[in-house]
Amino acid sequence: MDFQPSEDQQMLREMVRQFAEKEAQPTAAHRDDEAIWPTELVKKMGGLGLLGVAVNEAYGGAGLDYISYAIVIEELSRVDASLGVIASVNNSLVCYGIEQFGSDAQKREILTSLASGRTLGAFSLSEPGAGSDAAAQKTTAVRDGDDYVINGVKNWVTNGNHADTIVLMALTDPSKGVKGITAFLADTHAPGCSIVKVENKLGIRSAHSSQMAYDNFRVPLWRRLGEEGQGFKVAMSILNAGRIGIAAQALGIAQGAYEAALGYSKLREQFGKPIHEFQAVGFTLADMATRIKAARLLTYEAAWRKDNGLDYTKDAAMAKVFASETAMWVTTKAIQLHGSNGYSKEYPVERFFREAKITEIYEGTSEIQRLVISRELTRA
Ligand code: CAA
């Protein structure tokens, strides 16, 4: 067992850390306050290969492993979790899905530009009535010649209002339930796709999430992802990979909050000494660092299993539930350790705290992760 990151992984971490600290940090709080989409930063991430980290170089990607992908999302989120999720959605919910299930034409025509950052992707499974119960889809796709005609409403589409391509799930045969769902690669520039609203969110406000409507929206046959009726399985497999990305995002948020708390505890003096010298503070820092280390090991191990062709459904769910609950715990403690200053927008920990919450919810709530884990544990 080798716990040492490779030289390439270390160099990648350094490169992403520098980019995040130099380019993203100065505007992170303002973009979050004003919910400003980071147009230039997304372009730069594309140029650095951060939007197609694990995609084969033949299709415009950086051709790296999934541990490297986790490192990228962790380092972005350590500074700005909005950038973390924008990149994570494009990498794992879109590029991975196309590379895994797409045709040669889809890889050539769609994946190459997504992985190289020339275009941006989003993923659309959730609906007003289909959240944790993802199978309760209402959006329909009816075959008409060489097209499908799609009607319905999708919720919480991260990147949706900036995306060129959306991995879109719809019912091609409502009588078959879960086995009647099909996945498509929707071109958002085609007529019939509109943004209903952009959500006003608690955190990750620089990353946008939209409600989107499809009104007699046509998708040509060649853009169907996989076979008719395979859509639910496609979506679940994509989410297995996506959950490693969200675990890495949570890990980065926790790391950022921990570093802020550590720094503050050395500077802040009360009762005549730096507060880290009080055992209550020192022990809190110890618990933060220990939980973060455990979350990192779980996240990298899930990525390692994926890299080695092993089943990782349970491991990705474990990593996500543990890392996201760690992020929530660490960011709560980081505020406490800052006292009143932690409650102020002058310090970064209140943003980390708001960012952490979503990691317990999207790409499957903590309750759904526990359902996935318990089902895998008890599978005959
Ligand atoms: N991996 C692979 N296949 C899976 C799977 C997984 N994790 N989970 C289920 N499947 C397969 C099953 O094997 C089954 O196939 P077979 O019948 O061939 O065996 C099929 O899918 C149906 O499975 P279930 O009977 O288990 O389905 P279910 O209705 O009981 O639901 C669920 C399963 C786990 C609860 C699922 O609905 C789920 O994961 N819900 C959460 C949805 C979610 O994560 N949504 C997030 C949306 S994306 C997002 O957050 C927005 C963003 O932009 C970031």
Task: Characterise this structure.
The strands form 3 sheets. Strands 1-4-5-8 form a 4-stranded mixed beta sheet. It has a 4-stranded antiparallel beta sheet with strand order 2-3-7-6, with helices on one face. Strands 9-10 form a two-stranded antiparallel ribbon. The chain folds into 3 domains: 7-115, Acyl-CoA dehydrogenase/oxidase, N-terminal domain (Butyryl-Coa Dehydrogenase, subunit A, domain 1), CATH 1.10.540; 121-229, Butyryl-CoA Dehydrogenase, subunit A, domain 2, CATH 2.40.110; 233-379, Butyryl-CoA Dehydrogenase, subunit A, domain 3 (Up-down Bundle). The longest helix has 37 residues, at 231-267. The relative contact order is 0.12. The protein has helices at residues 7-34, 39-47, 66-79, 81-101, 104-115, 231-267, 279-307, 313-338, 349-359, 366-378; strands at 121-124, 140-144, 147-158, 165-171, 181-187, 193-198, 209-220, 224-225, 269-270, 273-274. It has 380 residues and is α+β, with helices and mostly antiparallel strands. The model has no long low-confidence stretch (mean pLDDT 98). It has 10 helices and 10 strands. Bound molecules: acetoacetyl-coenzyme A (CAA). Acetoacetyl-coenzyme A binds at residues 89, 123, 125-126, 132-135, 156, 158, 178, 232-233, 236-237, 239-240, 313, 362-364, 368, 371-372.
What is the β-strand count? 10
How is the quaternary structure best described?
Answer: single chain
**Secondary-structure element order, as H and E?**
HHHHHEEEEEEEEHEEHHHH
Give the averaged pLDDT, no decimals.
98
Reading side by side through the largest sheet, how are the strands ordered?
A: 1-4-5-8
- Biggest sheet architecture: 4 strands, mixed
